[in-house]
Amino acid sequence: MQLDRYDRHLLEVLQQDGRISNQDLADRIGLSPSSCLRRLRTLEESGLITAYRALLDAKTLGLTLMALVHISMDRHTPERFNHFESTVAALPEVLECLLITGQDADYQLKVVVRDMDAYQELLLNKITRIEGVTGVHSSFVLRRVVSKTSLPLDGI
């Protein structure tokens, strides 16, 4: 899909404020409301815009411990990976699951929990019980330095 400057600007604004009204969005990018809405619908229908979400503050909810968990698997088969991926996808504490390379691990999980007791519960009673998991290495996040949800649109 070819994006022009209006599309890129529209996407930049929406990444910062997904609740902006069509009128305000049109004003910000310099288009009429009808043209803006037409472009927005085209971007949604193309699959470029996949969803609109509210971002919640984990600390306010009492979820104060974030960990990066490297997982090693015993066998590298599609069945083993599919089972692991579907199991961790069902765990609400797992914010992200990445199949990785360049490490001694096969997956990296980003998890958020209330405290160390909750992490122990997740690790010992859920993650390590998934068939095929042979190794787990945890790193705990001390502080978020950069946290973005917006994709870079320059040069696209």
TrEMBL record:
The keyword Iron does not apply. Residues 3-64 form the HTH asnC-type domain. Keywords: DNA-binding, Transcription, Transcription regulation. The keyword DNA-binding applies. It comes from the Bacteria. GO terms for cellular component: cytosol. CDD domains: HTH_ARSR (cd00090). Pfam families: AsnC_trans_reg, HTH_24. GO terms for molecular function: sequence-specific DNA binding. GO terms for biological process: regulation of DNA-templated transcription; response to amino acid. This is AsnC family transcriptional regulator. It comes from Paucimonas lemoignei. The lineage of its organism: Bacteria, Pseudomonadati, Pseudomonadota, Betaproteobacteria, Burkholderiales.
